[in-house]
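Everyone, study these two lines:
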Amino acid sequence: MAEASGGESSSFADPTTSNDKPDEAVNAESQNGKPTCILCLGMAGSGKTTFVQRLTAHLYARKEKPYVVNLDPAVKEVPYPANIDIRDSVNYKEVMKQYKLGPNGGIVTSLNLFATRFDQVMNFLDKKGSSDFKFAIFDTPGQIEVFTWSASGAIITEALASSFATIVVYIIDTARSTSPVTFMSNMLYACSILYKTKLPFIVVLNKTDIVDHNFAVEWMQDFEVFEEALSQDSTYMSSLTRSMSLVLDEFYQNLRTVGVSSMTGAGMDEFLKAVDDAVVEFETQYKPDLDSEDEAEGGAEEEWDEEEMKEHESFKRFLENEKQKGQTAKKEENG
């Protein structure tokens, strides 16, 4: 791990050396022979990292070794073998200390620094390809907003989608969503992420070993059942939730939902089946749209106003300073 803030290693660690081959072909392999990228998002406490650990173990058991990337710079340790770890490139504590940032500001800045080197991650994924692994799993920070609404999060998501079949997985704590208001808040966030990323989307109702997820599925499929649950709450929030649920009814129609227990592994096969279906959707619906958008952007002449140019030049100077600091820290360490 780098000792100075922003001190990035010259290359990312890549411990994948096994030549294990899956016993049978996997439908999730995209048509161009490249791996499928699974972006795991979720609120703090939803069991996101535990889900990544269970999914990784499940794929190993199926002899389908995944490529796992940790994008959380603040986590103390990860319970899965990470092929690439952001903590090996950016020291989160030093970023907070040097720039006098709080926890969320430190995570955002660390992600920004990592995003400037994300081309190396792309090279690893492209070089390894589906011959070594079928899935690349990305574990994102627990503070979901610092990834979903940050420039670095958008850069990482768009970079992956431009080269690989990319699926967004939104993980919900089922045990904490038994209240209709809490459930609706979660689904609103899921809806906002879906329309922001414009990628195939899977909702994972996690912790089914604690609470069965069928109540949530029923709420999505039958508005009257959801309204009956809301009728027990006469607050202003329940009235607002009732209005929003009507708006989200169309959103539910095409939403893939899977109940999973990250503790027991129940539902993992169903989840991978949902991933297979999402990959087909990506190749047939999303990829053509992304390609047409790229062509349109390539043909249009980019125009920057004076303010944007200042921001661009400022960011370039910031990156140059960080590079010099990293080189200085490395010399001091070697000296």
Summary: Residues 268-299 form the longest helix (32 residues). The chain is about 55% helix and 10% strand.
